[in-house]
Amino acid sequence: MIDAPRRRREPRRPAPPVKPELAGLTKATRALLRDVAERSLDSLGVKNTSAFIEAEMLRQLVALDAAIPGAPNRDTLLRAALEHTLNQAP
Fold first, then answer.
1. Which of 23, 52, 57, 74 has the fewest Cβ atoms within 10 Å of its own Cβ atom?
2. What pLDDT is attached to residue 83?
3. End-to-end C-alpha distance for the chain, whole angstroms
C-alpha cells in the first residue's frame, strides 16, 4: 500500500458530447471513422491526434458522404467505404 500512487480527488470530467453529424452513425461506423481519421492524422505527422480527431472525423465523413447516395442503407455503404479506405491506406 505504501508504493501505491495517490488517488485523484477531483471528479472525473464527463465525456465531451458527440457532434450531431457523428451521433447519427452506429458505434461500429464511428469506430471505423475514428480509425480512418487517426490514420490520416498519423500520415500527416500529427503526434497528438486527440486534439484534432473529431475535426478530422468530420472532414472524412463529409468527403465520403459526398460519394454515397442518400439511401436508406447509408450507414452500411459508409461502413463499406471506410473499410475500403482502411484497406487501401499503407
1. 23
2. 93
3. 46
Q: How far is CA 90 from CA 1, 38, 84, 87, in A?
A: 46, 13, 12, 8
pLDDT of residue 50: 82
Band of the pLDDT at 35, cuts 50, 70, 90? very high
The candidate with the shortest Cα–Cα distance to 32, out of 66, 70, 71, 75, is: 75
Question: Residue ranges per domain, the chain?
Answer: 20-88
If phi > 0 it is left, if psi is from -120 to 50 it is alpha, else beta; for residue 4 that is beta
Has residue 79 got a pLDDT over 80?
yes
